[in-house]
Write a structure and sequence with these properties.
The complex is a heterodimer of chains A (108) and B (113). With 108 residues, chain A is mainly beta. Chain A is 0% helix and 57% strand. In chain A, a hairpin with a 4-residue loop joins β9 (85-92) and β10. Chain B is globular. The chains are: A mainly beta (108), B mainly beta (113).
């Protein structure tokens, strides 16, 4: 199976919270990352979490890590239309493995 | 401060040709990694260089090679291009070998005809 799995699509209303989920197989990763990619652009680092943490909050973003279940999630509070993009979960050390990306659509 | 810069931004080649892609890391960053992103997929790891030495190699054929220069900039070379090499090639830089702060450039979009 895939090293990193994400659901492909998520649609929310503006102002709601978005939760993007990710499962992975490699438990040796030191850091776990969330990136955002807009059409035709590169990857923007949103946030990352050190593997010995359970949670990290950064303004509207909250990352939860469940190492036992190898599950990582990204919550975006008060989702805006500008948050519409593809979100990638990535795990690894010097050789990162990415999920296929979750396309977030925010409806006004 | 300038971010990670890549050149060229777009290029078109034909099968069998060779291509060189260039990357300048963020000032002070010693590590450069290369990733291939095929349309509709997540990026795949190709190489990592740290302090001018190869520190990691992904599952890519020997047609792919790279190097890092004394100023920490890097080149990715692909020989004998195939149609399947058409992709966005992303460069990432970081201060150290393993770090949470890994920043990507805008990529070089390669089309092979």
């Amino acid at each position: 199976g895939e090293d990193v799995e994400q659901s492909l699509f998520l649609s929310v209303r503006e102002g709601d919270s978005s939760v993007i989920n990710c499962t992975y197989t490699d438990s040796s990763s030191t850091y776990l990352y969330w990136y955002k990619q807009e059409p035709g652009a590169g990857l923007q680092l949103l946030t990352y979490i050190f593997s010995n943490m359970d949670m990290k909050q950064d303004q509207r973003l909250t990352v939860l890590l469940n190492k036992k279940d190898k599950h990582l999630s990204l919550r975006i509070a008060d989702t805006q239309t500008g948050d519409s993009a593809i979100y990638f979960c990535a795990v690894g050390n010097n050789d990162m493995r990415f999920g296929a990306g979750t396309r977030l659509t925010v409806k006004p | 401060d300038a971010g990670v810069t890549q050149s060229p931004t777009h290029l078109i080649k034909t099968r069998g040709q060779h291509v060189t892609l260039r990357c300048s890391p963020i000032s002070g960053h010693k590590s450069v990694s290369w990733y291939q992103q095929v349309l509709g997929q997540g990026p795949q790891f190709i190489f990592q260089y740290y302090e001018k030495e190869e520190r990691g190699r992904g599952n890519f054929p020997d047609r792919f090679s790279a190097r890092q220069f004394p100023n920490y900039s890097s080149e990715l070379n692909v020989n004998a291009l195939l149609l399947g090499d058409s992709a966005l090639y992303l460069c990432a830089s970081s201060l150290e070998w393993v770090t949470g702060e890994l920043f990507f450039g805008e990529g070089s979009r390669l089309t092979v005809l």
